[in-house]
């Protein structure tokens, strides 16, 4: 195959997956808009406090889906029995994760909300959102597993349709449940929980008509295979959880600096950031089937070309996103500031312009981590993800907030991503020359 055909393949997988991930990000963005309109600043603060736990569920689901999908793509030329065992073991791991999340829904939600520092009405709203979200965790897990396997089975169009269909249903149901039905924060999270179920309904004809090349079979849990699935998908988990960790750390600092209004202002920025991150995640997930299949076939030149296309696309999109965030910061903040809170606007507008400086570095880190994972180099992928999510961001946020207050909080994110980008580039160049 020549480079023009590689570019077409990249464009097909990545464009479809970016559209699907943008649609998927409407889970949170629609909640943010309708909650801000229906429940005000307290509702917005509660939603932002619950986002890290959503990231935990979504990250676990992506870990299993991406980890299983990578093993499926690399080994699908080795026979039907092998890929069926990969799929079955991925389902086993998903079932185990579902049991843990459902147990937390029953006995752990008050403790988890207590970690956020919420109080009063915000505490009650956060508790309701989190408990219902955890009850829907089996649907989130299974949906992400099926999406990743369908995408790796050569059907990116169907995966995109399912993701967008579920997300659009969430937007519609959000409005219905919060306004005509007056269901409050419960309505917002109930709509979010129904979205993966609708997504799986869109996928179902693919399985009913038996077009899939993978299926569950009778076999025990293989610890070695399960470990390979978890290891390959761990960077996806860390990447997703890192967003939650950043939000939790920033929430704690902003609560001490600016109170609930500071958390609400960050809620606007964080939720818009999730949409941007979903674009980069869409590119990363889009190139994964191509990279993993190419790796299995030892097509080294193609792997390098696909990575290059992804980084060029990311760079162009980052420029466009930052221009929109910089020049449209006031308008974007006003959309979620129904009460016209002057302090919220004073915090969110300059915060957005500083925070979104991270765009190209975030995109580079997500795509490079996905590249390493897709070609079975999981250790550098895991290290880069840990640097982003825990090792650098936490001390950076604490240090800069003490030096420059709220502005330091906003600056800590782009500086962290820049440091990790330089480290990632060094690792890539070193491995390339070896």
Mean pLDDT rating: 88
Q: Can you tell me the overall shape?
A: globular
Largest sheet: none
Secondary structure category: mainly alpha
Number of helices: 16
Q: For the CA atoms, what is the radius of gyration?
A: 21 Å
Helix and strand pattern: HHHHHHHHHHHHHHHH
Strand content: under 5%
Note the main attributes of this structure.
globular; 0% strand; mainly alpha; 434 residues
What's this entry about, in short?
By secondary structure, the protein is mainly α. The chain has 16 helices and no strands. The two termini are 26 Å apart.
Describe this structure in words.
This protein has one domain. Helix 1 crosses helix 6, helix 8 runs antiparallel to helix 13 and helix 13 runs antiparallel to helix 14. With about 425 residues, the protein is an all-alpha fold. The protein is globular and about 60 Å long. It is built from 16 helices and no strands. The two termini are about 25 Å apart.
Strand-helix topology:
Layout: H1 3-75, H2 80-107, H3 109-114, H4 120-135, H5 137-152, H6 156-178, H7 184-208, H8 223-258, H9 260-296, H10 300-327, H11 329-335, H12 342-355, H13 359-374, H14 378-391, H15 393-404, H16 406-433
Helix pairs in contact: 1-2, 1-4, 1-5, 1-6, 1-7, 1-8, 1-9, 1-10, 2-4, 2-5, 4-7, 5-6, 5-7, 6-7, 8-9, 8-13, 8-14, 8-15, 9-10, 9-12, 9-13, 10-13, 11-12, 12-16, 13-14, 13-16, 14-16, 15-16
